[in-house]
Design goal:
heterodimer, A: alpha/beta, globular, B: alpha/beta, ten-stranded mixed sheet, three-stranded mixed sheet, about 15% helix
Chain lengths: ~230, ~220
């Protein structure tokens, strides 16, 4: 088996530079690559384009990179939980491309699947479709959307093995599998890093072929944005 | 004038659920619909972050950061439920495997246009999955208050805010009325208890069609 293991987050992020385009998995704060984000903050690189469904909250997730003004452009579907983001966007400091969530997911999938572009009905007739090619199929209008060109993809999985195979837990899966497919270099951080043979091949979500570097993450916070519960009794 | 509470709007929308439907509920009033599923109706709730068979909020102390809905609330998954990635989730939506979408709106127009994601220069949170949902769902019900906080109608001739989707809304349930959108007009189907046709006319800026006697909603 091809061994994808790197020893730590420093080694995992070797080669990242200012001006690059990154994909970062997660939905809200669920399933985000916490260790890789922390290292991007440490490295202090700037002028980044980040493709991620959300932009974290003010003091966690991608919000940490926004605080330090490391991000030049965000490509997201929903950024509602981040005041600093909204401030930077409205003041024009931050470029923002807001795109429909399903389009974002499919553009990530297309990137890794060798599909340069595809038609989707989402956003037809709205400002999202402005300047884009549209076309009618079977009486319905569609918008042409393109794949991305990310330099790195950062994903977070529950379990992984040394060959780079990944298994996600719960809804922390979200964008991670498509982004894992899309990175020129995909960095996977996992809660448990296991020897090959420990994961059942039937249950792998992301085959190791898509992952270039894997490491065992540490100190996961896994912050909950909206703690909603049913009272006991 | 009496009008429905948010809970009652959700309760009325729940009457629209059909047996064996897969349903996506948006944030806000739509989420409450899950509390009022009629007896004998089996439905499954889809959450676009990648969950089918969404259950209740977890018992206090059992919440799991890795198990949330699209509103980022901690939830549970029911027996028979499933979890998948975002591409598959939107394949379900665009592929029309989900039969009903219920979502909120800032404005709805008499031609079925909907605006619910952006107030230029003010509120720029993003559309999330709303554009995919309204572009694809067979059935879209908008759940909202009939007027905004300034008392202005949200049922318009033409949306003034940036659109989320065009010509897609067929039904609107508000605190005052149930309305169907067809042939470029709002058709009044039901009144909220204690609300008169006149009240609804006054609160509706778009073309309102009133045919015959309009019954009160049965709650």
């Amino acid at each position: 088996m091809i061994n994808k293991v790197v020893q730590n987050v420093e080694e995992a992020l070797e080669g990242v530079q200012s001006g690059m385009t990154f994909m970062l998995g997660g939905f809200g704060l669920c399933g985000i690559p916490e260790n890789s984000i922390a290292q991007l903050v440490n490295l202090g690189i700037t002028n980044l384009t980040c493709i991620s469904n959300n932009a974290g909250v003010d003091d966690f997730g991608l919000g940490l990179l926004l605080q330090k003004r490391q991000i030049k452009k965000m490509i997201s579907s929903y950024v509602g939980e981040n005041d600093e983001f909204e401030r930077q966007m409205l003041s024009g400091e931050l470029e923002v491309d807001l795109i429909p969530q399903g389009t974002l997911a499919e553009r990530c999938r297309a990137t890794g699947a060798g599909i340069p572009a595809f038609y989707t009905p989402a956003g037809y007739g709205t400002e999202v479709a402005q300047g884009k090619e549209t076309r009618e199929f079977n009486g319905k209008m569609y918008v042409l959307e393109h794949a991305f060109e990310p330099d790195f993809a950062f994903v977070k999985a529950w379990k992984g093995d040394t060959a780079g195979n990944l298994i996600f837990k719960g809804t922390a899966r979200n964008f991670n599998p498509m982004m894992a497919m899309a990175g020129k270099i995909t960095v996977a951080e996992v809660e448990e890093l296991l020897p090959v043979g420990e994961l059942d091949p039937n249950e792998i979500h992301t085959p190791g072929i898509f992952v270039q570097r894997i490491f065992k993450g540490a100190n996961y916070v896994k912050r909950i944005e909206q703690r909603t519960v049913t009272p006991k009794s | 004038m009496m009008s429905l509470s948010k809970q009652e709007i959700a309760q009325r929308i729940a009457q629209e659920l059909k047996h064996r439907w897969y349903v996506n509920l948006g944030i806000g009033i739509p989420t409450l619909v899950a509390n009022y599923i009629p007896k004998g109706i089996d439905v499954e709730f889809q959450s676009e972050n990648g969950l089918l068979g969404m259950g209740q909020f977890p018992i206090e102390g059992e919440e799991d950061a890795d198990m949330i809905n699209a509103g980022k609330q901690t939830v549970t998954v029911l027996d028979g439920g499933s979890i998948f990635d975002s591409a598959k989730s939107f394949a379900m939506i665009r592929g029309q495997h989900v039969q009903l979408t219920v979502l909120g709106a800032m404005e709805v127009a008499e031609n079925g246009d909907i605006a619910n994601w952006k107030i230029p220069g003010k509120m720029v949170k993003g559309m999330g999955g709303a554009m995919d949902l309204v572009a694809s769902a067979e059935n879209i019900i908008v759940a909202m208050m009939h007027t905004n906080k300034r008392g202005e109608s949200k049922l318009l001739k033409k949306c003034s805010l940036p659109l989320t989707g065009v010509g897609c809304v067929k039904k609107v349930v508000t605190n005052l009325a149930v309305l169907e959108i067809k042939n470029g007009a709002f058709h009044l189907l039901e009144r909220a208890p204690g609300v008169s046709v006149e009240d609804i006319k006054n609160a509706t800026a778009g073309t309102l069609v009133v045919n015959g006697t309009i019954p009160e909603m049965k709650m």
